Amino acid sequence: MFLNCHSFHSLRYGTLSVEELVKQAHLFGTKELVLTDINTVSAIYDFKKACESYGIKPIIGVEIRKENRLLYIAVAKEFLGIGEINRMLTACNCDGAELTETAPEFRKVFIIYPLSNCPESLRENEYLGIREEEINLLMKPELKAKIPKMVIWHPVTFSTKKEYNLHRILRAIDGNTLLSKLNANDFCAKTEFFKPVESIKNAFANFPKIIANTQKILDESGFDFIFKEKVKNKKFFTTSKKDDMKLLRQLAYAGLKRRYGEHDEAARKRTEKELKVIDQLNFSAYFLITWDIIQYSNTLGFMHVGRGSGANSIVSYCLGITDICPIELDLYFERFLNLNRKSPPDFDIDWSWQHRDQILDYIFTKYGKEHVAFCGTNVEFKYRSIFREVGKAFGLPKEELDTLATKPLSDHHEDKIVRLVHEYGQLLEKFPNQRSMHSCGILISEDPITDYSALEMPPKGFPIVQFDMHVAEDIGLEKFDILSQRGLGTISDTVHLIKKNRGIEVDIRDTSISKDEALCNEYLAVGKTIGCFYIESPAMRGLLRRLKCGDYITLVAASSIIRPGVAQSGMMKEYIFRHNHPDKFEYFHEVFKENLSETYGIMVYQEDVIKIAQYYGGLSLADGDILRRAMSGKGRSLAALQKVKDHFFESCRKQGHPENLSKEVYRQIESFAGYSFCKAHSASYAVESYQSLYLKVYYPLEFMVCVINNQGGFYRTEVYVHEAKMSGGLIENPCVNNSRFETTLNDQTVYLGFMHLQSLETRIAHEIAEERTRNGLYHSLKDFIRRIPIGIETVQTLIFIGAFRFTGKPKNELLIEARLLLINFKPENRTMMLIEEPVAEYRLPELKRDPFEDAFDEIEIIGFPVSCTPFDLLETKYRGSVFVKDLLKFHKRQVKMLAYLISRKHVPTKKGTMYFGTWIDVNGDYFDTAHFPDSLEKYPFQGGGCYLLLGTVEVDYHFPTITIHKMAKMPMIPDPRYSYHKEKQYDVHRQLKEDVSMTFRQPYPQEHEIGLPRHKLRS
Question: Do the bridges between strand 730-732 and strand 749-751 make them parallel or antiparallel, or are there none, so unpaired?
Fold first, then answer.
């Protein structure tokens, strides 16, 4: 009897999860249940699974609302019916079509209208819903006549009084209003909860036709959908499976010849093996569509990186989808695709952030907007938003809302309203708040994608389905991950800039320079990698130094062991030890020596689990992958894991291995598998890291300019400007006669771009350079104002940053000139005012400026000094007793250093939070510090700037870190621009920043906690 049920996917309306909704229906003896969330089908597939687990017949529909007003309820007779509803909602969400008061002529859908929106006549598939509390209204003649077309309408929205209150809070949040200001139309009736079916039927006992109509809809409706009966992606790239395989084989063999020559038998055999599996699993079209997208990208000269488990495939390598050779790195195809794998794999393809939208446009155009959409994702209420939103509904003032949102629960004061905010706020945890776009997952379907979901159009401009990637996988839609990153933008832009500036063509994909190059290896070994994708963070640079990383293979390993899970398992620390002391350990079993010698017998990659499962345990590669997957992922099943474990030990016994040995092998797999990283993924990262490093080594200024223009990576712009300066660049502030929107390079001179002036409109920033290109250099401030439509505040910013220094006039004089030119200025009178009424000649007394005024202007406008270093602004002339270049000599000795703060990272420990700092000394060299909680309590960080540091040097495998005992922030000179305003003399100092990052991982385990044997285990 329940034709209109809401889950909490009726955003900011329903209060029941899908599981709870179905569970309650079961408790009340319901045999059929209709899910009709408001204007969405987000939950229909989860709903079907939940119903079938409780023996309830699932029926699906949608409650159609317009501007919070119920129009009608649409119930699908069968799966085709939901497609009709989806297309109507999609037209509204994506094309701006209006939802009409009455339903369109659906073929496979029942329609139920409320009394408040009763049409004059009802079609055969249309009914009028009557609530129990509306039965008395049936005495009216106009309604009595319509009883033959009526059904029982008993909506379900909540289950308890508390949930009803929560529903009202959600409605207040949705309307951005107070609970006290809600009116009756804003929230549901107090009767919208489950009741025994017989109780509802008894209420309508005098109207058997209404009961019969209701049952008719329940009997004639259903959700006839089979989840993984077939893959629902686009079936064929050509016109048939046979032609797809023919084309894939042709392309694979052409690539095989290009990559390996004509006589590599091992590569040919592997290609044949993979093609056979791809054909059996009907994956040819998936490979070909990915290849097609790459081909389009290549025609435009775009760089891409194919990474993830797809790089385990030689066919991917031959097709140019990836640039990782799986034979060279001993990568297992079974990690990507095997006959036992039920969950579909996907390719992860990265493009530059500048090019991704063009790739997406191609996909939507080539494969049809009816068949392409992004995966959606549910954005849940978050801690801060929960208390802020709930508190706002209760009418709390902004100051109190800020406290609730930013401080921990223990710091909230106790009163009745705050207790209610806590009580109801905690109920909202895990509630979906809004739908958004998956960051990269694209679906390309064979049938129209609206067969499966209504589409929505988020602000980014590409349609999304109303379910997430997990549901997509469940129903047989395999996604293509089309990603973007700034690292590729940096590499691509650098290659173009080198060609433009130097006339040199750099083939950055040449493996002789993108995998192993002598000078690059020297930079790697000492961690000179700032600006380089994935290997520039303090932690990564420290790891490279500890490993003296001097080759591509070690870089691949470093890219994996730096991952939080791997490091947390202790494998990182053990790997560093064995890498530096290869003579101080034994392989505890020959299988580890034979198959993991590259990583000193340590499982560093996911593929290593498969290797050990195969060569020690005797499992097939496919079964080894099952073992790996059983131990990883968020939703691993304990029952499935036990089954895999039993299979592993049974197989080990058949191999004749002693039980104690097998237990140790399994313990190592178990401690690692859930945290491991795909080797192909690491290799892809390593190649891109190496490409960016090569450019940094040989073309440092071009590279750093492009890092700045791609808005950097781990650090703020100031750090990359410092790197450019250390590479011999002459750094210049923005100039209207030399700068463009982005930062530019002229020989050795780096002109910072207008993009760094936050108060300058992007439109104006572009116009300055474009007008200069059209009509030549600006001759004066007056000439500039005549040609660029600009106001006094923006002109002042340009003057203060020195953008008119070509005039030779001091800033004071330029400011007065600008004000005289723009006094009483109106845009429409620009030409007349400036040409017909020239500014009178005047002479100013000579106005002296302190040499450091420019530096404080720079800090205020772009956040850091350009005309000098932060050290130059210190009151003290002391520059430290020890410098970075000598730190290795001071192991276990106390040092005193003066340093400028670059970044700090927070790490929780059992004794409190500790910090890791990164600094530069007066010579511009980087070093790292560790700050323990007891030291921080007395000597805390106090924001960006220079500090005096006292600490003990600890050299850990070639990498010095200073454990800080004391530190003090050093005073800078007062701002000379405010010599007559004492209260403002230190305001700008606070704009010096440091990069702050946080981690919630626990400290890495100590050596004795890892428990990895360093000696051979005896049988």
Answer: parallel
| Residue 791 to residue 627: CA distance in whole angstroms | 67
**Are 13 and 174 within 8 A, CB to CB?**
yes
Short-list 395, 695, 661, CA closest to 530: 695
Nearest CA-CA partner of 356 in 485, 180, 185, 212: 485
Q: How far, in Å, CA of 929 to CA of 998, rounded?
A: 16
CB 733 within 8 A of CB 529: no
HEC-encoded secondary structure of 71-82: EEEEEECCHHHH
pLDDT at 826 over 70: no
Q: Where are the alpha helices (DSSP H) in 456-514?
A: 469-475, 486-502, 511-514
pLDDT of residue 681: 85
pLDDT tens-digit map of 596-606: 999 999 888 88
| pLDDT score recorded for residue 1001 | 62
Euclidean distance between the first and final Cα of the chain, in Å?
68
User: pLDDT category, 515, cuts 50, 70, 90?
Assistant: confident
Closest residue by Cα to residue 915 from 939, 896, 899, 885: 939
Sign of CA dihedral 191, 195, 199, 205: positive
Strand ranges across the sheet with 126-130: 32-38, 57-66, 69-76, 109-113, 126-130, 150-152
Q: Specify the residue for token string 């930062």.
A: 743
Residues 6 or more apart whose CB falls under 8 angstroms from that of 918 comprise 538, 901, 902, 903, 904, 926, 927, 928, 929
Q: What is the DSSP string of 835-897?
A: IISPPPP---------TTHHHHHHHHHHSS-SSS-GGGGBS-----SS-GGGGGGGTT-EEEE
- Dihedral (Cα; 85, 72, 436, 633), 10-degree rounding: -70
Kindly report, residue by residue over 455-480, the tens digit of the pLDDT: 999 877 789 999 998 898 888 888 88
Question: 955-970 as b/e, with b when 16 or more CB fall inside 10 Å?
Answer: eeebbbbbebbebebb
Collapse the DSSP code of 290 into the 3-class scheme (helix H, G, I; strand E, B; otherwise coil) and give the result.
Answer: helix
What pLDDT, on a 0 to 100 scale, did the predictor assign at position 836? 46
